[in-house]
Amino acid sequence: MAFETILTEIDDHIGTIRLNRPDALNALNAQLLQELGKALASMDDNDKVRVIILTGSEKAFAAGADIKEMSDKSFVEMFGSDYFGPEVEAMLKVRKPIIAAVAGYALGGGCELAMMCDFIIAADNAKFGQPEINLGVIAGIGGTQRLTRFVGKSKSMEMHLTGRMMDADEAERSGLVTRVVPAKDLMADAQKTAAKIAEKSPLSVLAAKEAVNRAYETTLREGLLFERRLFHAMFATEDQTEGMQAFAEKRTPQFRGN
Ligand code: CAA
Predict the structure, then answer these.
(1) Which of 90, 97, 244, 247 is the most buried (most CB within 10 A)?
(2) What is the ipTM of this complex?
(3) Cβ of 49 below 6 Å from ligand 1
(4) Any catalytic annotation for residue 132?
(5) Listing from the earlier edge strand, what are the strands of the sheet with 119-123?
(6) Nearest C-alpha to atom 27 of ligand 1 is from which residue?
(7) pTM of the predicted model, to two decimals?
Protein backbone atom coordinates (compact mmCIF):
# COMPACT_ATOMS: atom_id res chain seq x y z
CA MET A 1 0.00 0.00 0.00
CA ALA A 2 1.44 3.40 -0.97
CA PHE A 3 1.05 6.16 1.59
CA GLU A 4 2.12 9.80 1.49
CA THR A 5 1.87 10.85 5.12
CA ILE A 6 3.08 7.75 6.96
CA LEU A 7 5.88 5.20 6.58
CA THR A 8 5.24 1.55 7.32
CA GLU A 9 7.49 -1.45 7.88
CA ILE A 10 6.95 -5.04 8.98
CA ASP A 11 9.83 -6.95 10.51
CA ASP A 12 9.94 -9.95 12.84
CA HIS A 13 6.21 -9.84 13.70
CA ILE A 14 6.42 -6.12 14.52
CA GLY A 15 4.57 -3.61 12.35
CA THR A 16 5.92 -0.08 12.63
CA ILE A 17 4.01 3.00 11.50
CA ARG A 18 5.84 6.32 11.49
CA LEU A 19 3.86 9.53 11.10
CA ASN A 20 5.62 11.49 8.39
CA ARG A 21 4.60 15.09 7.81
CA PRO A 22 7.85 16.69 9.00
CA ASP A 23 6.98 20.18 7.70
CA ALA A 24 3.87 20.28 9.89
CA LEU A 25 5.30 18.46 12.96
CA ASN A 26 3.14 15.49 11.97
CA ALA A 27 -0.09 17.46 12.39
CA LEU A 28 -3.02 15.13 11.86
CA ASN A 29 -4.93 16.01 8.72
CA ALA A 30 -7.71 13.95 7.19
CA GLN A 31 -5.33 12.23 4.75
CA LEU A 32 -2.94 11.17 7.51
CA LEU A 33 -5.71 9.81 9.70
CA GLN A 34 -7.25 7.93 6.78
CA GLU A 35 -3.88 6.44 5.80
CA LEU A 36 -3.18 5.56 9.42
CA GLY A 37 -6.55 3.79 9.67
CA LYS A 38 -5.82 1.78 6.51
CA ALA A 39 -2.32 0.83 7.65
CA LEU A 40 -3.57 -0.25 11.07
CA ALA A 41 -6.42 -2.31 9.58
CA SER A 42 -4.05 -3.99 7.16
CA MET A 43 -1.56 -4.85 9.94
CA ASP A 44 -4.40 -6.07 12.13
CA ASP A 45 -5.39 -8.48 9.33
CA ASN A 46 -1.83 -9.58 8.56
CA ASP A 47 -0.76 -12.82 10.29
CA LYS A 48 2.87 -11.71 10.08
CA VAL A 49 2.14 -8.84 12.49
CA ARG A 50 1.62 -9.54 16.18
CA VAL A 51 2.17 -6.08 17.62
CA ILE A 52 2.26 -2.55 16.21
CA ILE A 53 4.48 0.42 17.12
CA LEU A 54 3.18 3.89 16.30
CA THR A 55 5.77 6.64 16.35
CA GLY A 56 6.65 10.06 14.92
CA SER A 57 9.90 11.96 14.61
CA GLU A 58 12.42 13.02 17.25
CA LYS A 59 10.86 16.50 17.31
CA ALA A 60 7.19 15.54 17.24
CA PHE A 61 5.01 12.52 17.70
CA ALA A 62 2.24 14.83 16.44
CA ALA A 63 1.60 18.51 17.22
CA GLY A 64 -2.16 18.07 17.08
CA ALA A 65 -4.93 18.08 14.56
CA ASP A 66 -4.02 20.16 11.50
CA ILE A 67 -5.08 23.66 12.51
CA LYS A 68 -4.69 24.99 8.97
CA GLU A 69 -6.98 22.30 7.56
CA MET A 70 -9.63 22.99 10.22
CA SER A 71 -9.50 26.75 10.52
CA ASP A 72 -12.09 27.62 7.82
CA LYS A 73 -14.54 24.85 8.57
CA SER A 74 -18.09 25.59 9.66
CA PHE A 75 -20.14 23.76 12.27
CA VAL A 76 -22.19 22.23 9.46
CA GLU A 77 -19.05 20.80 7.82
CA MET A 78 -17.58 19.52 11.10
CA PHE A 79 -20.78 17.98 12.43
CA GLY A 80 -22.10 16.89 9.02
CA SER A 81 -18.92 14.97 8.17
CA ASP A 82 -18.41 13.74 11.77
CA TYR A 83 -14.89 15.19 11.41
CA PHE A 84 -12.36 12.58 12.62
CA GLY A 85 -15.16 10.34 14.00
CA PRO A 86 -14.76 7.45 11.50
CA GLU A 87 -10.95 7.64 11.69
CA VAL A 88 -11.01 7.36 15.47
CA GLU A 89 -13.47 4.47 15.30
CA ALA A 90 -11.13 2.69 12.83
CA MET A 91 -8.32 2.92 15.35
CA LEU A 92 -10.47 1.55 18.16
CA LYS A 93 -11.27 -1.55 16.07
CA VAL A 94 -7.65 -2.72 16.04
CA ARG A 95 -7.35 -5.88 18.15
CA LYS A 96 -3.58 -6.24 18.21
CA PRO A 97 -1.60 -4.20 20.74
CA ILE A 98 -0.40 -0.77 19.63
CA ILE A 99 2.57 0.78 21.46
CA ALA A 100 2.99 4.54 21.14
CA ALA A 101 6.67 5.49 21.05
CA VAL A 102 6.54 9.21 21.72
CA ALA A 103 9.37 11.71 21.29
CA GLY A 104 8.96 15.48 21.17
CA TYR A 105 5.55 17.10 21.01
CA ALA A 106 2.39 15.07 21.57
CA LEU A 107 -0.13 17.89 21.69
CA GLY A 108 -3.87 18.08 21.18
CA GLY A 109 -4.83 15.34 18.72
CA GLY A 110 -1.23 14.03 19.03
CA CYS A 111 -1.64 13.46 22.77
CA GLU A 112 -5.06 11.96 22.10
CA LEU A 113 -3.66 9.65 19.43
CA ALA A 114 -0.94 8.44 21.82
CA MET A 115 -3.59 7.81 24.48
CA MET A 116 -5.65 5.75 22.00
CA CYS A 117 -2.71 3.35 21.77
CA ASP A 118 -2.46 0.58 24.36
CA PHE A 119 0.47 2.09 26.23
CA ILE A 120 2.97 4.87 25.79
CA ILE A 121 6.76 4.72 26.04
CA ALA A 122 8.13 8.26 26.17
CA ALA A 123 11.49 9.71 25.20
CA ASP A 124 12.96 12.09 27.76
CA ASN A 125 12.22 15.03 25.43
CA ALA A 126 8.51 14.19 25.14
CA LYS A 127 5.97 16.91 25.89
CA PHE A 128 2.28 16.17 26.29
CA GLY A 129 -0.56 18.66 26.33
CA GLN A 130 -4.08 19.59 25.32
CA PRO A 131 -3.59 23.17 24.14
CA GLU A 132 -6.86 23.41 22.17
CA ILE A 133 -8.11 26.03 24.66
CA ASN A 134 -5.53 28.42 23.17
CA LEU A 135 -7.30 28.09 19.81
CA GLY A 136 -10.76 28.84 21.13
CA VAL A 137 -11.87 25.19 21.03
CA ILE A 138 -11.51 22.09 23.20
CA ALA A 139 -10.06 18.62 22.67
CA GLY A 140 -12.01 16.67 20.05
CA ILE A 141 -10.69 13.12 19.86
CA GLY A 142 -10.79 11.95 23.43
CA GLY A 143 -8.56 14.29 25.45
CA THR A 144 -11.08 15.34 28.09
CA GLN A 145 -12.08 11.72 28.67
CA ARG A 146 -8.85 9.77 28.33
CA LEU A 147 -6.41 12.20 29.95
CA THR A 148 -8.76 12.41 32.94
CA ARG A 149 -8.72 8.63 33.31
CA PHE A 150 -4.93 8.51 33.02
CA VAL A 151 -3.91 11.36 35.32
CA GLY A 152 -7.03 12.16 37.38
CA LYS A 153 -9.42 15.09 37.30
CA SER A 154 -7.27 17.77 38.90
CA LYS A 155 -4.29 17.54 36.57
CA SER A 156 -6.41 16.85 33.49
CA MET A 157 -8.66 19.81 34.22
CA GLU A 158 -5.68 22.10 34.75
CA MET A 159 -4.06 20.94 31.51
CA HIS A 160 -7.25 21.41 29.50
CA LEU A 161 -8.01 24.81 31.04
CA THR A 162 -4.51 26.31 30.85
CA GLY A 163 -3.20 24.49 27.77
CA ARG A 164 0.14 23.90 29.55
CA MET A 165 2.47 21.09 28.57
CA MET A 166 3.58 18.21 30.77
CA ASP A 167 7.15 16.94 30.40
CA ALA A 168 8.10 13.27 30.24
CA ASP A 169 8.95 12.95 33.95
CA GLU A 170 5.63 14.44 35.02
CA ALA A 171 3.87 12.18 32.51
CA GLU A 172 5.52 9.14 34.08
CA ARG A 173 4.78 10.28 37.65
CA SER A 174 1.15 10.86 36.69
CA GLY A 175 0.64 7.46 35.06
CA LEU A 176 0.26 8.74 31.50
CA VAL A 177 3.28 6.82 30.23
CA THR A 178 4.67 3.44 31.17
CA ARG A 179 8.29 4.67 31.29
CA VAL A 180 10.71 7.31 30.07
CA VAL A 181 13.87 6.42 28.16
CA PRO A 182 16.65 8.52 26.63
CA ALA A 183 15.47 9.81 23.23
CA LYS A 184 18.21 7.93 21.39
CA ASP A 185 17.00 4.62 22.88
CA LEU A 186 13.28 5.12 22.24
CA MET A 187 12.83 2.89 19.20
CA ALA A 188 15.15 0.18 20.53
CA ASP A 189 13.16 0.10 23.77
CA ALA A 190 9.80 0.02 21.94
CA GLN A 191 11.09 -2.77 19.66
CA LYS A 192 12.38 -4.80 22.60
CA THR A 193 9.01 -4.43 24.33
CA ALA A 194 7.15 -5.31 21.13
CA ALA A 195 9.36 -8.38 20.64
CA LYS A 196 8.47 -9.58 24.14
CA ILE A 197 4.76 -9.29 23.33
CA ALA A 198 5.27 -10.97 19.94
CA GLU A 199 6.68 -14.06 21.71
CA LYS A 200 3.45 -14.67 23.61
CA SER A 201 0.41 -16.58 22.45
CA PRO A 202 -1.32 -14.19 19.99
CA LEU A 203 -4.66 -15.36 21.39
CA SER A 204 -3.83 -14.48 24.97
CA VAL A 205 -2.46 -11.14 23.79
CA LEU A 206 -5.81 -10.32 22.11
CA ALA A 207 -7.70 -11.48 25.19
CA ALA A 208 -5.51 -9.46 27.59
CA LYS A 209 -6.02 -6.30 25.51
CA GLU A 210 -9.79 -6.82 25.40
CA ALA A 211 -10.00 -7.49 29.11
CA VAL A 212 -7.89 -4.50 30.19
CA ASN A 213 -9.86 -2.20 27.89
CA ARG A 214 -13.09 -3.53 29.38
CA ALA A 215 -12.01 -1.95 32.67
CA TYR A 216 -12.75 1.43 31.06
CA GLU A 217 -16.13 0.48 29.68
CA THR A 218 -18.01 -1.29 32.41
CA THR A 219 -18.60 -1.83 36.13
CA LEU A 220 -16.03 -3.74 38.19
CA ARG A 221 -18.34 -6.72 38.63
CA GLU A 222 -19.07 -7.00 34.90
CA GLY A 223 -15.40 -6.48 34.09
CA LEU A 224 -14.36 -9.23 36.50
CA LEU A 225 -16.89 -11.62 34.97
CA PHE A 226 -15.71 -10.73 31.45
CA GLU A 227 -12.11 -11.40 32.49
CA ARG A 228 -12.97 -14.71 34.15
CA ARG A 229 -14.90 -15.95 31.10
CA LEU A 230 -12.03 -15.01 28.78
CA PHE A 231 -9.62 -16.76 31.16
CA HIS A 232 -11.82 -19.88 31.00
CA ALA A 233 -11.97 -19.62 27.20
CA MET A 234 -8.17 -19.72 27.00
CA PHE A 235 -8.43 -23.36 28.12
CA ALA A 236 -9.89 -24.18 24.69
CA THR A 237 -6.58 -23.23 23.05
CA GLU A 238 -3.53 -25.34 22.26
CA ASP A 239 -1.37 -22.42 23.38
CA GLN A 240 -2.67 -22.87 26.94
CA THR A 241 -1.67 -26.56 26.92
CA GLU A 242 1.70 -25.70 25.41
CA GLY A 243 2.36 -22.81 27.84
CA MET A 244 1.61 -24.86 30.93
CA GLN A 245 3.41 -27.99 29.69
CA ALA A 246 6.48 -25.94 28.82
CA PHE A 247 6.49 -24.49 32.35
CA ALA A 248 6.36 -27.99 33.88
CA GLU A 249 9.08 -29.23 31.50
CA LYS A 250 11.26 -26.15 32.19
CA ARG A 251 11.48 -25.16 28.50
CA THR A 252 10.48 -22.14 26.41
CA PRO A 253 6.91 -22.45 25.08
CA GLN A 254 6.30 -22.50 21.32
CA PHE A 255 3.07 -20.62 20.83
CA ARG A 256 1.29 -21.13 17.50
CA GLY A 257 -1.83 -19.01 17.88
CA ASN A 258 -4.28 -21.89 18.01
N1 CAA B 1 -1.44 22.12 12.64
C2 CAA B 1 -0.91 22.60 11.50
N3 CAA B 1 0.40 22.97 11.38
C4 CAA B 1 1.16 22.85 12.48
C5 CAA B 1 0.66 22.36 13.72
C6 CAA B 1 -0.71 21.98 13.77
N7 CAA B 1 -1.28 21.47 14.89
N8 CAA B 1 1.66 22.40 14.63
C9 CAA B 1 2.75 22.87 13.99
N10 CAA B 1 2.45 23.15 12.70
C11 CAA B 1 3.33 23.68 11.66
C12 CAA B 1 3.61 25.15 11.90
O13 CAA B 1 2.58 25.96 11.39
C14 CAA B 1 4.92 25.33 11.14
O15 CAA B 1 4.63 25.39 9.76
P16 CAA B 1 5.29 26.58 8.85
O17 CAA B 1 6.76 26.27 8.92
O18 CAA B 1 4.70 26.36 7.52
O19 CAA B 1 4.95 27.84 9.51
C20 CAA B 1 5.62 23.98 11.38
O21 CAA B 1 4.60 23.06 11.76
C22 CAA B 1 6.65 24.06 12.50
O23 CAA B 1 5.97 24.56 13.66
P24 CAA B 1 6.54 25.79 14.53
O25 CAA B 1 7.32 26.72 13.66
O26 CAA B 1 5.38 26.37 15.28
O27 CAA B 1 7.54 25.00 15.49
P28 CAA B 1 8.00 25.42 16.95
O29 CAA B 1 9.11 24.47 17.29
O30 CAA B 1 8.28 26.87 17.02
O31 CAA B 1 6.74 25.15 17.90
C32 CAA B 1 4.87 23.85 18.72
C33 CAA B 1 6.28 23.83 18.09
C34 CAA B 1 4.95 24.40 20.16
C35 CAA B 1 4.39 22.41 18.76
C36 CAA B 1 3.92 24.73 17.88
O37 CAA B 1 4.04 24.34 16.52
C38 CAA B 1 2.47 24.63 18.26
O39 CAA B 1 2.05 25.22 19.24
N40 CAA B 1 1.67 23.87 17.46
C41 CAA B 1 0.24 23.78 17.66
C42 CAA B 1 -0.12 22.86 18.83
C43 CAA B 1 -1.61 22.83 19.01
O44 CAA B 1 -2.26 23.81 19.26
N45 CAA B 1 -2.18 21.62 18.89
C46 CAA B 1 -3.61 21.41 19.01
C47 CAA B 1 -4.26 21.40 17.67
S48 CAA B 1 -6.04 21.34 17.71
C49 CAA B 1 -6.44 19.74 18.02
O50 CAA B 1 -5.59 18.88 18.13
C51 CAA B 1 -7.92 19.44 18.14
C52 CAA B 1 -8.27 18.05 18.52
O53 CAA B 1 -8.20 17.66 19.66
C54 CAA B 1 -8.79 17.11 17.53
Answers:
(1) 97
(2) 0.98
(3) no
(4) yes
(5) 6-11, 14-19, 51-55, 98-102, 119-123, 179-181
(6) 25
(7) 0.97
